[in-house]
Backbone:
């Protein structure tokens, strides 16, 4: 399934510039990011026809035309503007062996063996229901080779139910030493060596190396290969300047990158799923000039999400939503795929969602060529209207009600503010400071989970499942708390905190820039005490009318609200 009428747009090849075309320094990010967000009307967009876009709201049938200049800079390029993938895949060392990059590309980026075996084309996705049925039957046959225990484990994980009992981090120090030894054994790694020389505090940090170990199931040999491949792809995307040895910032992206980033084509969902995994939302929006614009957008969003160590450990849940009739062709995906694979992330489940049944063969093709082995078992295709699909995703523990148009825009502006505060958008910064940025981010960038208790007066904080559950726990322990001594009151508060923490819940408070931070236990106890005081004030207001009768009604209402949210 390909897109007709699209023409390739070549990348910048100016002397002295990186792949973004930054020959004379970065663009003014503040102005360009605000322009992109304003121009796209802070809305998640879906492509309709060439040069037109529609909003994600099904009720909105009115398409917004874009002038020719903007169309030229935002329409998708469905053919590769670079032969880089093929060049890397053909690379061999002096002894005739495949390079690390070639090995990873050939093993992980694309899987065409099964398509060959069942007689399907290996140069295009299935184009009919018949071909899709053949592919599905072959993949199901492959899955039957798994043991019953493995099938059950994968099914539980897909629905957000963890079955892991061992602690994989117990030998982390030993694994890190082995990883460093493996890196020394790889001799041909120029991009990695350059980055390490630029900024050893970042490239050689424990937190950075641990990210790759977690992505590779704590196998040092695989993690070492992925690290070298990571820097080869990063060099290809962003050049070999200072950005190679530090995290990618908004200032490293050009105007087309920012337009793609602002469109919301790739975004982190505001809440994690039932198992505490970060949900990565990918929407089919043709708002990139080249495939590399899309790759840089993906790199920035995902690497920022990976600053959360829990995301590294638990992995992502991938949700692709396409409610139109067009999709990127195979050549485009093959160009994009190596950059995606170079990021140290793991997938716990993939959900591909279409409104049109005619898109099913395309979804089956993605499953057939991009995924292999157990990942195919954790890949689901959903077809229906947006409301039906949202409900289906909720049955897998994926919250969809808070996927608002404003969330991604707010997230971007929060990132911009954070980077500006750290002095990274004006005049550059030292390697040490960049390393500190990543180290601090690993613990400070937080996405609320389902059972987290959120501080604040906003509707989102008040109606978050974890906040309402905490209020219900407070109501349940009210009598015990009110008759307790001061010391015993602390014990009751600690008991409630323990219940919340036992379900992986945290107490989060947004700072001045909207970044969620986990608070200390003392602050959490104060929050519990605040909820008890709220109950007491409510009683005082209603006592002369119903003698606490309304309090019983309020408790019932809280239970009903929590039940409704838990069911979603």
Residues:
């Amino acid at each position: 399934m390909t897109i007709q009428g699209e023409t390739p747009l070549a990348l910048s090849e100016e002397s002295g510039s990186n792949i973004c075309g930054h020959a004379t320094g970065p663009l003014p990010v503040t102005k360009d990011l605000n322009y992109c967000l304003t121009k796209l009307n802070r809305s998640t967009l879906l492509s309709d026809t060439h040069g037109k876009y529609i909003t994600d709201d099904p009720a909105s049938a009115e398409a917004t035309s874009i002038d020719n200049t903007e169309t030229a800079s935002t329409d998708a390029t469905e053919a590769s503007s670079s032969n880089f993938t093929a060049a890397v895949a053909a690379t061999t060392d002096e002894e005739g062996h495949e390079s690390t990059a070639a090995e990873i590309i050939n093993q992980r980026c694309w899987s065409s063996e099964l398509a060959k075996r069942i007689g399907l084309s290996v140069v295009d996705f299935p184009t009919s229901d018949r071909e899709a049925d053949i592919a599905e039957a072959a993949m199901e046959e492959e899955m039957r080779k798994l043991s019953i225990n493995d099938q059950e484990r994968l099914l539980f994980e897909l629905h957000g139910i963890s079955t892991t009992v061992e602690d994989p981090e117990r030998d982390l120090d030993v694994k890190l030493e082995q990883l460093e030894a493996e890196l020394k054994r790889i001799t041909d790694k120029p991009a990695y060596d350059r980055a390490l020389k630029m900024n050893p505090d970042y490239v050689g940090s424990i937190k950075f190396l641990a990210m790759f170990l977690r992505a590779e199931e704590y196998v040092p040999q695989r993690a070492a290969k992925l690290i070298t491949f990571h820097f080869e792809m990063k060099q290809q995307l962003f050049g070999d300047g200072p950005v190679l040895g530090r995290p990618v910032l908004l200032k490293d992206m050009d105007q087309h990158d920012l337009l793609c980033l602002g469109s919301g084509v790739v975004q982190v969902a505001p809440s994690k799923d039932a198992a505490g995994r970060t949900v990565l939302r990918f929407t089919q929006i043709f708002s990139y000039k080249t495939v590399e614009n899309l790759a840089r957008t993906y790199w920035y969003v995902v690497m920022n999400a990976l600053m959360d160590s829990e995301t590294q450990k638990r992995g992502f849940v991938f949700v692709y939503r396409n409610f139109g009739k067009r999709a990127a062709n195979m050549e485009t995906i093959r160009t994009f795929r190596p950059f995606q694979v170079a990021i140290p992330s793991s997938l716990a489940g993939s959900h591909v969602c279409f409104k049109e049944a005619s898109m099913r063969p395309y979804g089956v093709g993605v499953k057939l060529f991009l995924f292999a082995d157990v990942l195919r078992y954790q890949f689901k295709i959903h077809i229906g209207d947006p409301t039906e699909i949202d409900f289906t995703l909720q049955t897998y523990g994926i919250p969809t009600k808070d996927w608002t148009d404003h969330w991604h825009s707010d997230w971007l502006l929060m990132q911009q503010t954070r980077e500006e505060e750290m002095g990274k958008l004006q005049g550059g910064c030292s390697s040490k400071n960049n390393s500190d940025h990543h180290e601090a981010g690993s613990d400070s960038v937080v996405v609320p989970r389902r059972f987290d208790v959120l501080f604040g007066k906003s509707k989102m904080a008040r109606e978050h499942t974890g906040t309402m559950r905490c209020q219900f726990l407070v109501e349940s322990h009210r009598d015990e708390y009110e008759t307790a001594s001061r010391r015993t009151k602390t014990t009751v508060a600690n008991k409630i905190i323990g219940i919340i923490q036992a379900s992986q819940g945290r107490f989060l408070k947004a700072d001045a820039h909207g970044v969620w931070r986990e608070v200390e236990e003392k602050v959490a106890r104060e929050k519990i005490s605040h909820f008890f005081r709220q109950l007491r004030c409510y009683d005082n207001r209603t006592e002369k009318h119903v003698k606490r009768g309304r309090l019983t009604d309020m408790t019932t209402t809280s239970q009903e609200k929590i039940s409704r949210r838990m069911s979603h």
